[in-house]
Amino acid sequence: MQYILHAPRSSIVFSTIDSSISRFLRRQHKWAGFKTERDTLPEYISESCIRELDDGEVEIDDEALNGNRLSEEIRSLLIRDGFLEPDFRFVGRLVHPRIMDTARSNRESTKARVESWDEDGLDRRKNLL
Are 8 and 30 in contact (CB under 8 A)? Predict the structure, then answer.
């Protein structure tokens, strides 16, 4: 089981097998993430540092090029925050960074689920009496 994570406003993606690191980054630093049992990365994560722009031109993503250095820096910050020998590594970058713009926050997702419970037509107050 691994956790795929990325920082807000960043297309660089990291991985960890430690759920406490995932929880810490998601709650304290508002990172986006998900848990997966897959050994392969989803199709919207690329291990390449070359990206294609909307106009068809190609450029090198400097952050992805230096992803391992960045993961070392974050690992040292995790050690400072109390994690011993954190498992945290660079895995790639989002191919289409705007894909995460459509993702909802935990609060929005919870609100949507609660609203769907209310819309099912069942009056739960009657069942409680």
Answer: yes
- Residues 61, 39, 98: CA angle, nearest 5 degrees: 35
Question: CB neighbours of 4 closer than 8 A, spacing ≥ 6?
Answer: 13, 14, 15, 33, 34, 36, 41, 42, 45, 91
Domain coordinates in residue numbering, the chain: 2-97
Percentage of the chain beyond pLDDT 90 is: 27
pLDDT band of 16, cuts 50, 70, 90: very high
Residues 6+ apart with CB under 8 A from 44: 94, 95, 96, 99
Q: Which residue has the higher pLDDT, 124 or 44?
A: 44
Encoding tokens for residue 76?
């040292």
3-state SS assignment for residue 65: helix
Q: Label residue 81 by pLDDT band (50, 70, 90).
A: very high
